[in-house]
Amino acid sequence: MPIIHSVKRPFRIRNLIAFSLISLVWSYMVIRSWSHEAWNDKDTEDIIVLFFQTLLLLMYYGSLILTLYRGFKKPTELYMNPDEITVNGRTIQANEVKVVMKMGYFRPVIGIKPIGKKVVPLKLCFKFSENEDQGISDIQSWAETNRIKIVNQDFMTWL
């Protein structure tokens, strides 16, 4: 009988702040370059640099929007079976898990790091949306049952 919990992706406040600040700085640079009065004196190289600055700005805005979208997605289900765990549509066997990582104290984020990976995959990163204490104790007991180490430390995921 699987244990089921409601989970959602973390909001990633640090990423939002970083992307917002970088986007503001790049916006200022691009707007200033576009509004410069001496367009007649611009070389082709200056226009190419301005074009790539604009592309970079659009990438930062895209990352910001993607982070916001992921943060506001509806909660999904976490299924813990005795020898596997399914979260965000991805099933991973207990023997494929290197470590379970817990980041933060209030509303902690859980990351499941597979063997051979340097960062936690985005689909294996979550926080409990309700009944958080029970969810954390359930995942700790699942990890202890399967002899998987649990560590309290910051971890990295892709965007």
Which features does this protein show?
elongated, eight-stranded mixed sheet, 8 strands, 159 residues, 2 domains, alpha+beta, PH-domain like
Explained architecture:
The protein folds into two domains: 3-9 and 74-152, Pleckstrin-homology domain (PH domain)/Phosphotyrosine-binding domain (PTB) (PH-domain like, Roll); 13-71. 40% of the residues lie in helices and 26% in strands. It has helices spanning 13-34, 44-71, 132-145; strands at residues 3-8, 76-81, 84-87, 90-93, 97-103, 109-114, 125-128, 149-152. An eight-stranded mixed sheet has the order 4-3-2-1-7-6-5-8, covered by helices on one side. Strand 5 (97-103) and strand 6 (109-114) form a beta hairpin.
Tell me the layout of helices and strands:
Blueprint: E1 3-8, H1 13-34, H2 44-71, E2 76-81, E3 84-87, E4 90-93, E5 97-103, E6 109-114, E7 125-128, H3 132-145, E8 149-152
Parallel strand pairs: 5-8
Antiparallel strand pairs: 1-2, 1-7, 2-3, 3-4, 5-6, 6-7
Helix pairs in contact: 1-2
